[in-house]
Amino acid sequence: MAYTQPLAGTSTATGTAPDAPVWQWLADIVLTLHVAVVAFVVGGLLLVLAGNLRGWRWVNALWFRLAHLAAIVFVVAQTWLGMVCPLTTLEMWLRERAGVAGYGGGFIEHWLQRVLYYEAPWWVFAIGYSLFGLLVVAAWIRFPPERRRPSPESRRGSRP
Length: 160
Prior knowledge:
Layout: H1 20-54, H2 62-80, H3 86-97, H4 107-116, H5 122-142, H6 152-155
Helix pairs in contact: 1-2, 1-3, 1-4, 2-5
C-alpha cells in the first residue's frame, strides 16, 4: 500500500481538514452557481428566441439582454485567451482546502460535475463557444432589446 501525503492543512490521521465539510459545502455552492451561469447563458438564448416568437416582450428587456450578452462575451473571451474559468478555479481551490484532490464526493457535486465538465481539446470549446456567441449576436440583431421600460400589458405577454 502506497503512502500518500495529505494536502497542506489536513490531518495526517484522516487526510482531511478539520473544517473540511464547510469547504466542501462552499465548493458545492460554487459548482451550483457555475451550473446556474451555464443555464443562464444557454437558457437565456432559448428564452430570447422562443419569447420573441411567442410575443413575450419582456425577453427583450435591455438589462436582461445586456447581462446575457456580457456572460457569453466573457466565456468566449476567456476561452480564446486560454484562461480557466474563475468559478472552476475557485471550486477547485475550495475542494483542495477541504482536503479533496480533484473531483469526487457527494451526490450534488457528482451530478452537477457530469453536466458541466467534459474532456475535449481546447479548440472544440473555443469554436463551440464562439458559434454560440455568434448565435447570441444574431438574436440581438434579429430581436433587438427594448430601450424603454415595458408596459404592464407587455409584461403579461400580450401583443399590442
